[in-house]
């Protein structure tokens, strides 16, 4: 690992240069892309477990899935590791053929064994994103029979129902569909753990880059994969540096110590836009900013309180100041651009309306509650703004800051009162968000499926059935209307204060070209970047 440590050291040395006295100007290595980003949300590098923004992007550049799509037109679906597929007459079985001649970074050939092992492993490990596949009727007991090898390069994917084919294919574009090197992973299994403890911090993929080193809250180093089946990346390596402070990212970018700053706020956007050496780019993401109100809290479980809090966010001010250029107001769980997205925004800051609702709830003097807040600049600033407007109606909100891992772990155990979060779609079908915001098949503490509705202890059997019906509707117009109706009901009853849709903004040195901002974070790509 000495070569890896060398390049991490090169990246980290730039900080010292940036703060050195005098007009010293640094320059990153010509064959190395260095990005500054807040990567404290990374918990694992295992495709069967990754469910966070930063790690999704890392895997999107280091693994390959069975299926892909055109990031400029997501309706254009194509095979990646899979060369082709057929659907049975009853609509329940997909037969996939693996593309010949592809290899993992290890040099092992990619075969049907790897695809079958990957998908079965997701089901048997049953980590957070496993629901993306278990929704098709798979479980640990039946998956060996339902996802089965039929030849060296072919396998079958048999489901319990004839789901919409595009839903199935989009689900396989998620990180759980990223194919792992079964021979390598099996060689690192311990006590039947499917290589889980090894793959959390190691790599077994076939993408454009290999993951060589991950130092939590410090850096990630990727290196060019010489066995990659596509065109070789121009960059020999790519390094992410954990720099959560937006002002520091701006300074490092202006000095030339980094190539791309990934967390630029409204102030940095304005300043960098006038710098001739810097280019500011943006792209609309499917990510949604929201508040999750835990229904285990005696105050938050009251319907009037949930609605009152939707009138105690100054959406316009936050969008125009704190998050200027980085969000658009949006108040439904499906982001713009998705089938059936609802674009109506019925809520605005209305303290009098909120006070009326709180009085109806028997809380005319308000109450005290906590909110877990990831300690990045933008989340903290939004949280403080919300704290101030909530106080106007007597809701005393105590902020509890923490890093990404801390706040996510607490939230996933539903030990919070309120969580300010950011949710990105796992795939490009509307069910991706309906499945988490509007479905909760089991509200018990030991439930197998733990979507956002579960995290907030919202028991919704009737809404769950409506969401289930949508995935079997073959008529696109009828299916879109189901989602519009669901979102309309959701806006008025849910414990989610949905606020904004994200616009991802990055700033790069003008000589750095070819970075792709995709609709999802695992679509963000730097494999074609040149300097």
Description:
It is built from 19 helices and 17 strands. Strand 4 and strand 5 form a beta hairpin. It has helices spanning 2-18, 53-60, 112-125, 131-134, 143-146, 165-171, 182-186, 196-199, 246-255, 266-272, 303-310, 315-322, 351-360, 377-391, 404-412, 431-437, 452-455, 461-470, 476-493, and strands at residues 32-37, 67-70, 73-79, 82-87, 93-98, 147-151, 154-158, 209-215, 219-224, 237-242, 260-261, 278-293, 327-329, 367-374, 395-402, 418-423, 496-509. Mean pLDDT is 93; it is low at 1-8 and 10-24. The chain is of the alpha+beta class and 531 residues long. The strands form 3 sheets. Strands 1, 8, 9, 10, 11, 12, 13, 14, 15, 16 and 17 form an 11-stranded mixed β-sheet that branches.
Describe what is shown at a glance.
With 531 residues, the chain is of the alpha+beta class. 32% of the residues lie in helices and 22% in strands.
């Amino acid at each position: 690992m000495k070569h890896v440590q060398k390049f991490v050291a090169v990246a980290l040395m730039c900080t010292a240069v940036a703060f050195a006295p005098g007009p010293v100007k640094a320059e990153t290595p010509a064959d190395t892309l260095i990005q500054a980003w807040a990567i404290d949300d990374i918990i694992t590098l295992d495709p069967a477990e990754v469910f966070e923004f930063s790690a999704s992007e890392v895997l999107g550049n280091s693994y390959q899935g069975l299926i892909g799509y055109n990031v400029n037109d997501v309706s254009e679906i194509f095979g990646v590791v899979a060369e082709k597929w057929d659907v049975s007459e009853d609509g329940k079985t997909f037969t996939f053929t693996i593309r010949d001649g592809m290899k993992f970074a290890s040099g092992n050939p990619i075969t049907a064994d790897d695809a079958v092992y990957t998908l079965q492993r997701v089901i048997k490990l049953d980590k957070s994103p496993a629901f993306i596949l278990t929704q098709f009727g798979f479980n640990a007991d039946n998956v060996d029979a339902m996802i089965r090898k039929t030849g060296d390069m072919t396998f079958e994917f048999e489901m319990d129902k004839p789901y919409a084919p595009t839903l199935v294919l989009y689900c396989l574009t998620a990180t759980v569909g990223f194919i792992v090197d079964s021979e390598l992973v099996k060689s690192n299994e311990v006590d039947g753990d499917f290589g889980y403890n090894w793959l959390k911090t190691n790599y077994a993929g076939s993408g454009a880059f290999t993951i060589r080193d991950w130092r939590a809250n410090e850096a990630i180093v990727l290196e060019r994969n010489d066995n990659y089946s596509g065109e070789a990346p121009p960059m020999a390596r790519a390094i992410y540096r954990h720099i959560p402070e937006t002002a520091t990212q701006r300074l490092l970018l202006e000095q030339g110590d980094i190539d791309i700053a990934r967390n630029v706020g409204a102030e940095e956007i304005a300043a960098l836009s006038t710098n001739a050496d810097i280019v500011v780019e943006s792209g609309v993401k499917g990510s949604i900013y929201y508040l999750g109100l835990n229904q285990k809290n005696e105050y938050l479980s009251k319907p009037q309180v949930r609605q009152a809090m939707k009138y105690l966010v100054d959406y316009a001010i936050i969008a125009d100041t704190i998050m200027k250029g980085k969000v658009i107001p949006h108040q439904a769980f499906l982001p713009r651009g998705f089938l059936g997205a609802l674009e109506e925004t019925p809520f605005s800051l209305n303290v009098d309306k909120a006070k009326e609702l709180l009085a109806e709830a028997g809380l005319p003097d308000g109450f005290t509650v906590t909110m877990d807040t990831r300690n990045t600049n933008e989340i903290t600033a939004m949280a403080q703004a919300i704290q101030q407007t909530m106080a106007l109606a007597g809701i005393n909100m105590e902020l509890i800051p923490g890093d990404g891992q801390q706040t996510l772990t607490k939230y996933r155990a539903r030990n919070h009162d309120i969580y300010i979060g950011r949710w990105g779609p796992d795939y490009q079908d509307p069910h991706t968000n309906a499945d988490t915001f509007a479905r909760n098949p089991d509200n018990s503490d030991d439930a197998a499926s733990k979507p956002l509705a579960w995290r907030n202890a919202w028991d919704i059997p009737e809404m769950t059935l409506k969401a289930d019906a949508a995935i079997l509707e073959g008529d696109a117009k009828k299916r879109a209307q189901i989602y519009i109706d669901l979102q309309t009901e959701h806006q008025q009853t849910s414990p989610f204060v949905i606020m904004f849709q994200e616009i991802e903004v990055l700033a790069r040195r003008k000589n750095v070209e070819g970075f792709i901002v995709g609709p999802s974070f695992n679509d963000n790509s730097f494999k074609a970047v040149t300097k």
